[in-house]
Design goal:
8-stranded mixed beta sheet, 350 residues, alpha+beta, single chain, 12 strands
């Protein structure tokens, strides 16, 4: 392949009549000659297109006594005013939840989070903690949001319900949505007028997102999505679904392959029969999540419904999962703190 370097507007591969394609270069490799290369040579071309990562080997550095601090995540430092305002808001939320313990205790019995709690959260703007102020949200930092989720952790169904809506349901929209998509949905999501959910898991899919079988087919200016998603939190109450499906796209060699792609599906824009939602699962715990199956039957969405770029679903997925994990941990910390307090109280009074 090194002998097939390009020279000006033509290239050696074209002069030899190997291909009529326009010559495109990646470093010293002439992509127009790919059709004539063997499988091994094609693999070399693909490898040459991978940009080198300018990052020192982490484990190797550990053996020589070097620790790369850039891999760490640090909490944001709040000034006195921000800290004071945050603690006031946290106190208000905690007092509200403490005064409604009976409603929270009913969650596991009824399988639903009380509408009174949901409506109060709407009025307090708690559905838009991470949404920028320009779109009607609170625009809080991650450190501040984690404090709220510690309080939500007094009922794990509540913290998971809020977290799925915020960090998975519309988290992709925040990071990868177009300006038009954000203007259309974020204000309504921040007000709690619209709820979002996450559609990734499937019955035969394990931990590998590339094993998803739900597919999207491009038809003119639309994509047609077909498949069933499982373990969808708040499936019946959500109006906006972040859906991952396989889509046929062209790779760098011009070959078609199925790649995971992320779509934004608005329930209100679908026709009758395109979306079916099951009854909630009968769970042993976390019943307030109202987990359902969601079936997409030739569901038609606009080509502008793609989040990120076609075929980049895995990158989109990875960009939001990390943040969701440590916000989940914040809710668990709040729950464990209550458990510890109850344990200490019991041991002192038994």
């Amino acid at each position: 392949p090194s002998s097939l370097s390009c020279t000006g507007l033509s290239c050696q591969a074209q002069r030899q009549g190997r291909t009529r394609a326009v010559c495109l270069t990646r470093g010293n490799i002439c992509i127009s000659s790919v059709a004539a290369l063997s499988t091994e040579q094609s693999r070399t071309v693909q490898q040459s297109q991978v940009s080198p990562l300018n990052f020192p080997p982490f484990v190797k550095d550990l053996f020589v006594g070097k620790f790369n601090k850039s891999v760490l995540s640090y909490a944001e430092v709040l000034n006195d005013e921000s800290q004071f305002n945050l603690e006031n808001k946290i106190r208000e939320v905690r007092n509200f939840l403490d005064s409604n313990k009976e409603l929270l205790e009913q969650v596991d019995r009824t399988g639903k989070i009380s509408p009174d709690i949901i409506n109060s959260f709407r009025q307090s703007g708690l559905f838009g903690l991470s949404i920028p102020q320009e779109f009607g949200g609170a625009g809080f930092l991650c450190t501040e949001i984690a404090r709220f989720y510690e309080v939500f952790g007094c009922q794990l169904s509540l913290s998971e319900f809020m977290g799925t809506n915020e960090f998975l349901g519309y988290g992709v929209l925040l990071q990868h949505g177009s300006v038009e998509q954000k203007e259309k949905y974020l204000a309504r999501l921040a007000e709690g007028e619209m709820m979002a959910s996450w559609c990734l898991a499937e019955g035969g899919t394990g931990s590998d997102p590339d094993s998803v079988v739900c597919e999207a087919v491009e038809e003119g200016e639309e994509f047609v999505i077909t498949g069933t998603k499982t373990w969808v939190t708040n499936g019946q109450g959500a109006q906006l679904f972040t859906v991952f499906a396989k889509l046929r796209v062209r790779n760098s060699l011009g070959e078609e392959e199925e790649k995971l792609t992320c779509f934004l599906v608005d329930k209100n824009e679908l026709s009758v029969g395109e979306l079916e939602i099951s009854q909630p699962y009968a769970l042993a715990g976390m019943r307030g999540l109202e987990v359902c199956d969601v079936r997409f039957e030739k569901c038609r969405v606009s080509r502008h419904a793609v989040l990120g770029s076609p075929g980049e679903g895995v990158s989109v997925l990875q960009s939001v999962l990390h943040r969701n994990k440590y916000m989940q941990a914040a809710g668990v910390v709040g729950s464990l703190r209550i458990l510890l307090d109850d344990t200490i109280k019991h041991t002192k009074t038994r």
